[in-house]
Amino acid sequence: MNKEQAFSLLDEEGYLLDLTLWSKELALALAAADQFELSENHWEVIDTIREFYQEYQLSPAMRPLVKAMSIKYGPDKGRSIYLMKLFSQSPPKQAARYAGLPKPLNCL
């Protein structure tokens, strides 16, 4: 998927318009356009945020994301400082964007 194809699927803030169109290829294209490389640790967060969305039908803000990461991966990865090191802009917003989910409601 090229950059133009990827961006045609997004709203004005860069979030996927149709959640059913998400793929790892799309996530990689979005990250590449941001000059951002997704490591295995990033994929753990993306998978966790997608699982959270499946259960609650909303993208988690920071505190619920930290809790979900802690439950799934333990206390070292369930810390806001850990998430900030991975996604320095805003972990919930940036991870939701790459995960093909809506922007978390309480994120500006």
Can you give me a brief rundown of this structure?
This protein has helices at residues 3-7, 24-33, 40-56, 62-73, 80-86, 91-98.
The H-level CATH homologous superfamily, spelled out, is DsrC protein, C-terminal domain
Work out the count of structural domains: 1
What would you say the CATH architecture is?
Answer: Orthogonal Bundle
Query: What is the distance, rounded to the nearest whole angstrom, between the alpha carbons of the first and last residues?
Result: 29 Å
Shape: globular
Secondary-structure-based class equals: mainly alpha
- Give me the CATH fold name: Arc Repressor Mutant, subunit A
> pLDDT average, as an integer?
92
Uncertain parts: none
Give the C-level CATH assignment. Mainly Alpha
- Percent helix, as a range, is 40-55%
How many β-strand runs? 0
With helices defined by DSSP (H or I, 4 residues minimum), what is the helix count?
Answer: 6
Q: Give the quaternary arrangement of the chains.
A: single chain
Order of helices and strands: HHHHHH
Q: What's the main sheet like?
A: none
Portion in strands: under 5%
Written account of the structure:
- The protein is mostly helical and 108 residues long.
- It has one domain (3-98): Arc Repressor Mutant, subunit A (Orthogonal Bundle).
- The protein is 55% helix and 0% strand.
- The protein has 6 helices and no strands.
- Helix 3 packs across helix 4 (62-73) and helix 3 crosses helix 6.
- The radius of gyration is 13 Å and the shape is globular.
- It starts with a helix and ends in a 10-residue tail after the last helix.
